[in-house]
Amino acid sequence: MTHVLSAFPVPDPEPARPVVDSTLISRAKLGDIQAFEAIVARYFTRCMRFAHGMLRDAADADDVVQETFVRLYRALPRYEERQRFDSWLFRILGNCCRTANLLQQRRESLDTGDDRALLSVPSTDRPDAAFDQEWGDEVRRALAEVPEYNREIFLLHYVEGFSYEEIERITGVRQSALKMRAKRASDYLRTRLAGVHRD
Amino acid sequence: MTERRGDPGPIVDRALETLRELPAIDSVVVARIVAAAARTRALDAAPNDDDLLPPPAQLRPTRWRLAAAAAAIVITIGGMLLWRAQRRADGDLASSGNAPVSTPYVPATQARTMTPDALPVPTQFVFDGRARHVVLVGDFNNWDEHATPLEREPGSSLWSVTVPIQRGRHIYAFLVDSVWTVDKRAPVARDPDFGVTGSVILVGRP
Lengths: 199, 206
Hints:
Number of helices of chain A: 9
Oligomer: heterodimer
CATH class of the largest domain in chain A: Mainly Alpha
Radius of gyration of chain A: 18 Å
Number of strands of chain A: 1
Number of strands of chain B: 9
Helix content of chain B: 25-40%
Strand content of chain A: under 5%
CATH architecture of chain B: Sandwich
Helix content of chain A: 55-70%
Largest interface: A-B, 74 and 56 residues
Strand content of chain B: 15-25%
Largest sheet of chain A: none
Number of helices of chain B: 4
Low-confidence stretches of chain B: 1-5, 45-61, 89-113
CATH superfamily of chain B: Immunoglobulins
Number of domains of chain B: 1
Shape of chain B: extended
Distance between the termini of chain B: 54 Å
Order of helices and strands of chain A: EHHHHHHHHH
CATH class of chain B: Mainly Beta
CATH architecture of the largest domain in chain A: Orthogonal Bundle
CATH topology of the largest domain in chain A: Rna Polymerase Sigma Factor, Chain: A
Radius of gyration of chain B: 23 Å
CATH superfamily of the largest domain in chain A: RNA polymerase sigma factor, region 2, helix turn helix motif
Number of domains of chain A: 2
Order of helices and strands of chain B: EHHHHEEEEEEEE
Structural class of chain A: mainly alpha
Low-confidence stretches of chain A: 1-8, 14-18, 113-127
Largest sheet of chain B: 5 strands, antiparallel
């Protein structure tokens, strides 16, 4: 199955507003907790969305996002504003998600035969409000099956709207490899969801 | 930020619509994050770059950890205030321009309960250069740009300040006319995630 090249709009993560006000960052760098709170409120939902997509156990999302912002706050004095703020934030978030997945994987290996390994997949049949739609369940189930290193690039590019150039700066991976990873994730989802999709 | 690429196709396109839905903002979680961050920076005296944070499962504070943190803050602030009061009494504050490094001053009531390693150590920071004002910021003063200004020695380009600091590894920098500047005399720190440099000082080690 081949697909023609076409313009496919990647969402601009901040279509109407500036990435973040530099005055706000300057205040937060100096320890102004209210400025930091405004930054958290500004990026919280995007971080949660990304964490839910990345984590083996979506229930860890709260803790991982908290860890990310705590690390961000501690490192803020050393933040150089020539870097794009959200790229820096998602770099930290990606690291935290990978660490959490590793810990979760170790827990699962220790819990062999336990129901926890099954429950840890963020696509269960639990009566969770976030997963109560069949299509949404299937999408998240399929996404969870994509290898982490492909899934992260797919989410950063297609969902969070980062260009490959930005993702290269975030992850340190070359653009050619990034495009291949995003394509593999996309191909897997297409095949996996073909039987579920209804036009 | 539009790029040309292989079209993911309608199935993936529809999946993306689902994945792009933003969750609702949870003000309780936001408040918890802000509280955790404030607490962490106040206690930030990491002995090395690898322990920036405990694993996620340990993030939620336990009662004993909060109690230990509160005790550490009280001891540190009390030590600083008493040390400053002692310096004023000795009449040497800001007059010599070359503050001595001495045995930490701690009142007897505290000294009976603190081990030597828990005492803050007066530590001198020196910046050499032309500037209108120089400020010391570090994990030991919550990166507060107003807390620790350096004083210039009359007739020279040497700026210095002495502050009591808990033993251990600390990261700091100078704000020279509001510009972040590392200490050329100290090793450079590079935290694993962030790639922005500060200087490192090891306090209380020979």
